[in-house]
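Researcher: I'd like a candidate sequence for this fold, 324 residues long. If you have to choose between options at a position, lean toward the conservative one.
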């Protein structure tokens, strides 16, 4: 098949998955440009370092394993998961350290974006290299788009979620959470590669990935529900302090926020954004110490000031219209 067709077959599904993943984060959606930046790291940076790292590790293994088939199996089941999950995940370490990284869902989204980018480039290389005819090309496109690339997204998203848990946890074991997440990512990756390395176990591998995808969706949904709970809990304090009107509390912490009519449409989106940001800054303030806590305190205060201005201006306009 022409390389252009292979590129489109690799890119289009991953871009669609990326947009779906981004839109699933409905309460505290990340900047799309930042998400795309993670996607590009997976597609370019992680791939380059994975190729270099894999070759380096393979060269070491060749000293001890001389059988070609055994070396290929080691490469697929051990070396590839080890190297690729590190090269994909290392970018997340910097992202999580950012003060604007809000919650576990962010780790799922950014990690998933990196995995999808990685899957896109890897798929293109496979489609362009290993398809001998149209039938084999179609088979590769279906299997790798529906399962292998999704595996990359879920594996790195899992690592991202554990990084998020570590950042906001008060547990004394929080420092080992990233390593647990990386272990799970490598294990998932390795099990998938092992299952598709043998024809007899390939169907079990497909079943395994279907289960993994369902579990990922459930975890993501629970994470979104947790966001909703955080928003309601933290904004309840702002209601008590007179910053947020009591009648807005249930709306801001539910899908009702996206409906028109409950507030002036000119300020609805910016009000939702500020209120959501305020809720998570309060959470982060209570979960950190030192300079980070000081940053979250100041950012929360700025949100309160902007919210007060918005609502005061709206009330003044309503008053003027009533007088007229």
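Model: Candidate sequence:
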């Amino acid at each position: 098949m022409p390389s252009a067709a292979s590129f489109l077959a690799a890119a289009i599904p991953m871009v669609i998955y990326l947009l779906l993943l981004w839109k699933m984060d409905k309460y505290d959606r990340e900047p799309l440009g930042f998400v795309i930046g993670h996607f590009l790291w997976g597609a370019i940076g992680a791939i380059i370092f994975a190729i270099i790292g894999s070759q380096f590790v393979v060269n070491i293994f060749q000293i001890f394993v001389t059988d070609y088939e055994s070396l290929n199996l080691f490469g697929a089941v051990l070396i590839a998961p080890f190297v690729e999950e590190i090269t994909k995940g290392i970018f997340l370490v910097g992202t999580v350290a950012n003060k604007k990284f809000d919650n576990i869902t962010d780790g799922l989204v950014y990690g998933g974006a990196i995995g999808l980018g990685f899957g896109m480039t890897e798929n293109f290389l496979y489609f362009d290299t290993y398809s001998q005819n149209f039938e084999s090309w179609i088979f590769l496109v279906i299997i790798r788009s529906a399962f292998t690339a999704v595996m990359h997204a879920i594996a790195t998203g899992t690592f991202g979620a554990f990084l998020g848990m570590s950042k906001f946890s008060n547990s004394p074991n929080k420092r080992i959470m990233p390593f647990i997440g990386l272990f799970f990512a490598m294990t998932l990756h390795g099990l998938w590669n092992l299952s598709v390395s043998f024809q007899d176990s390939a169907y079990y591998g497909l079943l395994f990935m279907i289960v993994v995808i369902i579990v990922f969706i459930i975890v993501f949904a629970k994470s979104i529900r947790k966001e909703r709970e955080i928003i309601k809990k933290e904004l309840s304090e702002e209601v008590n302090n007179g910053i947020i009107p009591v009648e807005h509390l249930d709306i801001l912490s539910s899908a009702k926020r996206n409906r028109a009519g409950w507030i002036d449409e000119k300020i609805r989106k910016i009000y939702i954004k500020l209120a959501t940001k305020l809720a998570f800054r309060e959470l982060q303030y209570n979960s950190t110490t030192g300079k980070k806590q000081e940053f979250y305190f100041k950012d929360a205060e700025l949100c309160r000031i902007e919210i007060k201005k918005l609502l005061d201006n709206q009330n003044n306009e309503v008053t003027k219209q009533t007088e007229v």
